[in-house]
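Shift notes (night). Ran Malate dehydrogenase while the centrifuge was going.
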Amino acid sequence: MTRDDLFNTNASIVRDLASSIARVSPDAHILVISNPVNSTHLFGVTTLDVVRARRFLAETVGAHPSETPVTVVGGHSGPTIVPLISQSPRGNEVKGEKYHASCTVSSSVVMRSSRPRMGVDFFSSNVELGRDGVEKIHPLGPLSPEEQKLLEACLPELKKNIEKGKNFVQ
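Came back to this:
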């Protein structure tokens, strides 16, 4: 199944569920674990990317995934996934080709905000959730040169993904 197949199947399901929830409970905050993860009141959990990045880092440094937290930012498809390996306590143990590989395999939340972040409407970030939804959006923090390149490559592709999602719901 291609990413387009996934999008076409899941987008209509998410759209219908979101419409029903909005009708019944317009102030609800919901977490969506699906492709796509975007709408005006949706948070999409990108846990899968976080789990992959943690596991890869753990295997690379010979640790347990609980010892290798990794924040993943950006989006949830190919080049839009940006794991911040350098910010992990064990990330400094990964060098060269293994570091580059860890940045391409990879809890963040994709969220729609009233003001774009990183120049896009939906951007996965490390956040703190509370009773009223997102209470704090953590800054990206310092990026390694490799992560900066990944972020720069992520944004144009993420914009395309977002436009595709927006066009679908219009």
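The longest strand covers residues 120-130. The longest helix spans residues 145-169.
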